[in-house]
Amino acid sequence: MFSPDSLAWWIAAVAVLVDLTIRIIAIIVVPRNRRPTAATAWLLAIYFIPYLGVLLFLLIGNPRLPRARRKKQDLINETIAEVIRDMHLGGPHPELPEGFASLVRMNQSLGALPLFAGNGAHLISDYQTSLDAMADAIRRAKQFVHVEFYILQSDVSTDNFFRALEEVAERGVPVRVLLDHWANRWKPRYRQTIARLDAMGADWHLMLPVQPLKGRTQRPDLRNHRKLLVVDNEVAFLGSQNVTDSTYNLPKNIKRGLHWVDLMVRVDGPVVASVNAVFLSDWYSETDEVPESAVFAPTEGGSGDLDCQIVPSGPGFEAENNLRLFLGLLYGAKRTIMIVSPYFVPDEALLLAVSTACDRGVQVELFVSEEGDQAMVYHAQRSYYEALLRAGVRIWMYRKPYILHTKSLTIDDDIAVIGSSNMDMRSFGLNLEISMLVRGEEFVNEVRVVEDQYRALSRELTLEEWLEQPLRSTVLDNLARLTSSLQ
């Protein structure tokens, strides 16, 4: 029999041994194929809170989708590559910016989708106008309507959108809908939205569902953050806006008077087939079904003369496609870089690219929100302001109570990226995103008009003002910066 003293000694010895074993195994396992910053953050969590840290690592330590899901994405990429091999795509216009052709090749190598010439694209910066424009396009549908949004809610603001879906469904047009599971399941109006989709006869599915009882699990904080609509392979919409009221119908947002400011782009022409390919890849990944409309058949030409390429990204791909796109563009900039991102939490590579651009004499401006809607991301973003300001970046803070939710990047006078991707580590590694690379001065001019509107509604943050931040804010910012690397 053990005496109480010896039993306590053995318990303490076992605890020390287990703790030491966890630390040694963590050093071996955690850094493998992981960014140094992410590995360091995980090791700190495991060392300071070993049992909870290990539990969190086992729960959310793998930033990739399950192997079966990744194999589906590989199959989709191979299928697209076979289809376009013998297809005459029509190359980009002459007088390409330096490095643009190689950037396009990289995008196609990573995401499978080619660049198409002869597209029309126009921005919609008003929130309700965007919802109504999508409704108008839906009502013209003859073959199919494909809806994929991170958040999809039936409410007063989106009623016209849903009525349009109901009208075409009644005419027998197939309506397929994808919405993110976690982003919608616990939000207001979820049951009403699902009931309305059921009533109209829409074929709808949850994206990245966490349903262990149904055998559907993966890292629970992976999200399908894409926002897109495709009608008849003729017209598509994509951008930053969800299908919901500008308050997201959340009581805390309504109480604070918060409204979201977004930007969508309406596109027509051959690139619409690429947007549809992204939808179909997600549809196949979630349902194991291939709709009759799963034909990669680009139209001959659109209403404009723009070069466009769709770049999908996310944990289903081996590389961080969106981050590489952004880095390539930042290093190629000659005169101006305009970044609009509600959540700007760069990794080392992105921060270096931005500061290097400033060193090269490139004018760099960053548009963010003065008000934050997500505390951890808000404080993590703030932790980079001093470095950015010292590098020479001009930071514009969109005045509260509005949340500037637009995600855009313009380079010099003729290159832009519009889509769903923020410039943060979550969007690079954990979210499924869609971005559209556009080359064309007329389109960039449209984006410049929106940027000017944002600037007029913002105030500029100066280094002098920032250095007066209280100590408590600095502490919160730095703590949030550490947690942002836990991928």
Using brief descriptors, characterize the structure shown.
Endonuclease, Chain A, alpha/beta, 487 residues, 16-stranded mixed beta sheet, globular, two-stranded parallel sheet
What does this 3D model show about the protein?
With 487 residues, the chain is an alpha/beta fold. It folds into 3 domains: 4-60; 67-85 and 120-304, Endonuclease, Chain A; 321-483, Endonuclease Chain A (Endonuclease, Chain A, 2-Layer Sandwich). 45% of the residues lie in helices and 21% in strands. The chain has helices at 4-29, 36-48, 50-60, 67-85, 100-111, 127-139, 159-170, 181-185, 190-200, 251-256, 272-287, 321-332, 348-359, 375-382, 385-391, 425-429, 441-456, 463-466, 471-483; strands at residues 115-124, 145-149, 175-180, 203-207, 223-224, 227-231, 235-239, 259-261, 264-268, 306-313, 336-340, 344-345, 363-369, 394-398, 402-404, 408-411, 415-419, 423-424, 431-439, 458-461. The strands form 3 sheets. The protein has a 16-stranded mixed β-sheet that branches. β6 (227-231) and β7 form a beta hairpin. α4 (67-85) runs antiparallel to α11. The longest helix is centred in the N-terminal third of the chain and has 26 residues, at 4-29. The two termini are 47 Å apart. The model has no long low-confidence stretch (mean pLDDT 89).
> How many strand segments?
20
CATH superfamily of the largest domain: Endonuclease Chain A
Protein structure class = alpha/beta
Distance between the termini: 47 Å
CATH architecture designation of the largest domain: 2-Layer Sandwich
Outline the low-pLDDT stretches. none
Helix content, binned percent? 40-55%
CATH class category of the largest domain: Alpha Beta
Annotated CATH topology of the largest domain: Endonuclease, Chain A
Overall outline: globular
Number of helices: 19
